[in-house]
Amino acid sequence: MTTFKREFYFDNNIKEKISKNIRKYRLENHITQEQLALDIGVSYDFLRRLEFKKGQIGCSINTLYKISVVLNTRIDKFFL
Q1: Spatial contact of 55 and 23, defined as CB atoms under 8 Å apart
Q2: Rounded to 5 degrees, what are φ and ψ at 8?
Q3: Domain range spanning residue 43?
Q4: Cys-Cys crosslink for 47: which of 3, 37, 64, 73, Cβ 3.0 to 4.6 Å?
C-alpha cells in the first residue's frame, strides 16, 4: 500500500475563534464572567484572560465542554 502526504487546512486562529465565541454566547445568555467561572469551576481571572487574550490562552476540552453545558450551546458552535 502506498502512502502519501495529504493536504488539510488547519485554522491557525482556532483558539481566537473559540475565545470570541465563548464571549459571544456568554453575553447572549446574559451571564457574567464571574458567574460562568463559578459555574464551571475556574477562576474569574482565568476566564477573563481566556476571553480577552483572544487565542493566547487556551483551555482544555473538559473546560470547553463545561462552558457549552452552562451556556446551553452545542460545543461545535465554538469552532465556527
Answers
A1: no
A2: -135, 155
A3: 14-79
A4: 37
CATH at residue 48? 1.10.260.40
DSSP letter assigned to residue 40: H
Instruction: State the virtual CA torsion across 1, 9, 74, 57 in degrees, nearest 10.
Output: 120
The grid coordinates listed for 42 are: 475556574
Whether 19 is covered by a domain: the verdict is yes
Identity at 18, one-letter amino acid code: I
- Overall pTM surpassing 0.85 (yes/no): yes
CA dihedral over 76, 30, 63, 21, signed as positive or negative = positive
Residue 1 neighbours by CB under 8 Å, 6+ apart: none
60 CA to centre of own chain: 9
**pLDDT, tens digit (0-9, with 9 covering 90-100), for 31-48:** 999 999 999 999 999 999
User: 3 in a domain, yes or no?
Assistant: no
